[in-house]
Amino acid sequence: MSLLEQRYRRVLRLLPATYRAEREDEMVSAFLDGAHATADEDNPRPHWREIASVAALAVRIRLGANTTRPRHHAWGQAVRLAVLGGLGFYAATGVWTATRPPLDGTLTGLPATAAAGVVMAVAFALLATGRVRAAKTAAAVGLVPYAVEVALAADRLADMLSRPGKPSPARLPLDAVPLLVMAVPFVLVAAFAAGYHRDVRPPRLPAAVAVAPVAAGLAVAVAERAAIWLIVPTGALGEGWHWIAMWVSEAGLACLALAGAAAAHTVARLRTGRHSAAVPLALALLSAPAALIAAIRIAPGAAGEIADVMNLTAAGQALLLALCCLAMLTVGLRSLPPAPPPAQLRPAD
């Protein structure tokens, strides 16, 4: 076996084992036929375009839309549901952030993250109505404000670390929260590009679903404003608001939404007896980063009543999300169809 053939076979390890067992020799032969004859002494390597094509094929297979490969289809459906849910959440929180009142009852304006969330609302509506390419473009545009915020947060953190009086180790996780929170949308858009590939049929959801995140964001903003108007006249805002402030935040709302969705899915699963893997796996994929964000908000060295309440609430949210993630991942993995033997694998679409 030549050195070039060895390297081609190494690249093909990106593909599932069952697929390689069916097509590896054929693909290696095609690659070698298209390559220029090169001796091992010349240290030949696969072209980057060939590597990219194999990687793209691996993504399409592992996140497939072909029901003849039920295991890959289930993972593909899980990623696509997670993308739809993630876009919907950012759409709802973007509308909420753009319209929510501060403690004095006036509007907050439209910060960069709120503007990004509004763009995500457009991306969600486009995706829900089957316009996948336009939705990908809108989601990519929505990353621009996050990129600016990530750069600013990284600069602030680097400046703090370079000062003589560096932040304490207990303070560092809290200072890193903005970086982690604003990195999640980039992972979401990458999953969007990978999950909704060219083999996937565009979704066609009811029009009510397309505007549901906007309605949810407005409902949260109205509820928050009503709570402030009810509490402020009693003079209890400063005393009791910190008990619910951690829940009226993106992390808190994510915790409530995911815990509620996991509970609803569990009840529906027990009632109907259906054992779909895609929904619990999607909830696990969404719960994992949310649990990490909740956990990193804990500041063990902080002191004071408010700090204690915030730490306790963040710990509770992290634990709840971790349990949701573990439970949904267990249920989803157990519901996955068994992997087919190599002989039963059909050619790729």
UniProtKB/TrEMBL annotation:
Keyword Transmembrane: yes
Domain of life: Bacteria
Transmembrane segments: 78-98, 110-130, 137-157, 177-196, 208-232, 244-265, 277-298, 318-336
Protein name according to UniProt: Uncharacterized protein
Keywords: Membrane, Transmembrane, Transmembrane helix
Keyword Transmembrane helix recorded: yes
